[in-house]
Design brief:
Elements: E1 4-5, E2 12-16, E3 23-31, E4 38-45, E5 51-58, E6 68-72, E7 80-92, E8 98-108, E9 118-124, E10 131-135, E11 145-151, E12 154-161, E13 164-173, E14 178-182, E15 189-199, E16 202-210, E17 218-226, E18 231-238, E19 247-252, E20 256-257, E21 263-271, E22 277-286, E23 292-300, E24 307-314, E25 317-325, E26 331-340, E27 342-343
Antiparallel strand pairs: 1-27, 2-26, 3-4, 4-5, 5-6, 7-8, 8-9, 9-10, 11-12, 12-13, 13-14, 15-16, 16-17, 17-18, 19-21, 20-21, 21-22, 22-23, 24-25, 25-26
């Protein structure tokens, strides 16, 4: 049974959610085990333009003022200074710890530093004092690595190979520290931004892909994955408003389970004429045979903003960033929470 979205115009409530220390970019969220609190992951741009990893632990209410913010950064060395850390997916680790994935950049004092991002996995206390591990798919022959989401012992992400910007997706086994490539069949590019652990060996993953069949059109997708057999099933493609002709890009930015046994996703999209990009709350139910049903779309548009991006989802809440441009063309970036009113 699919979710029923209230038909009233005013179905969404918006609120700012920022670290008061600087420009905040929210990129991931997960509920804290046995608590009403959440972990929120992102990045913080301070007054000196230093980008640091950011973790929030507390209630999702109160504009970010009712919990505690932590600056966490991949540890550098005398040979390699870390100049940028960005946290994407938080997750509950063992014994009350937190797991984080994301990316970082280094500036080497000797030799040539990588020009792009390096991926990471972290496990330990929420203050960042635990264990940091570099994630290197494709034997390290990569230009950019972004680890987007982690749950149930697996993480997912993307990378480029040298100057090849086609985009490659991978799964990362956090115990064995091994990466496995993933590709939507017959696709040109594949991205993996979200993973949900259904229990035991069952996972559901979300992202996007392009294929020769649809030309320049990029579609979102959901797919089930069995970690024991390494097999996928129930692959289904999605386009904005369920109409391919409306958009040239549709992408799922994350995934969470819904009360009805389906899934909720944050989605970003670009219209076919390239004139408008936007964000949506997307809900998809399971059919009786286990396949995915049609998607319900609710647009997310922060009031008086020029751009709204949906980056992550928790229950019926979409979190992301919005941009406001003033009369002097100055852009201000802020993070938000949008609560979608859903009737069970």
């Amino acid at each position: 049974m699919s979710q029923n979205i209230k038909p009233e115009v005013n179905t969404i409530s918006y609120a700012d959610f920022n670290n008061p220390a600087g420009q905040t970019t929210i990129q991931g969220i997960r509920g804290v085990s046995e608590s009403e609190n959440v972990y929120i992951a992102g990045s913080l741009v301070s007054s000196n333009n230093l980008v640091q990893g950011l973790i929030y632990e507390g209630t999702i209410k109160g504009n970010g003022n009712e919990g505690k913010w932590y600056n966490v950064n991949f540890p550098g060395s005398p040979e390699a200074t870390v100049i940028n850390t960005s946290c994407y997916g938080p997750n509950n680790g063992p014994h009350g710890t937190i797991q984080l994935v994301g990316s970082y950049k280094i500036s080497a004092s000797t030799g040539k530093a990588p020009s792009g991002n390096l991926g990471f996995f972290y496990e330990g206390p929420v203050d960042g004092s635990g264990t940091w591990v570099q994630v290197s798919p494709n034997d390290g022959n990569t230009n950019n690595v972004f680890v987007h989401s982690v749950m149930g012992g697996l993480a997912v992400g993307n990378y480029d190979v040298d100057d090849d910007k086609n985009g490659y997706a991978f799964l990362y086994d956090i115990v064995n520290k091994k990466c496995t490539d993933f590709k939507v069949p017959d696709s040109l590019t594949t991205t993996l931004y979200g993973i949900w652990h259904n229990g035991e060996d069952s996972y559901t993953m979300a992202g996007g892909y392009t294929s020769p069949k649809f030309g320049k059109i990029s579609q979102a997708f959901l797919v089930d994955y069995n970690s024991k057999t390494k097999q996928t099933s129930n692959l289904k493609s999605f386009s904005y408003k369920n109409e391919t002709v409306l958009s040239i890009i549709t992408h799922f930015e994350g995934i969470t389970i819904s009360k009805e046994g389906g899934y909720n996703m944050p989605s970003d999209w670009l219209t076919v004429n390239g004139e408008k990009n936007g964000a949506s709350f997307v809900s998809v139910s399971r059919n009786s045979d286990g396949s995915f049903g049609e998607a319900n779309w609710i647009d997310i548009d922060f009031p008086d903003s020029s751009v709204t991006s949906a980056n992550t989802v928790y229950q019926n809440n979409i979190l992301g960033i919005y941009v406001v441009v003033d009369s002097s063309d100055t852009k201000t970036v802020s993070s938000f929470v949008a609560k979608v009113n859903i009737e069970p």
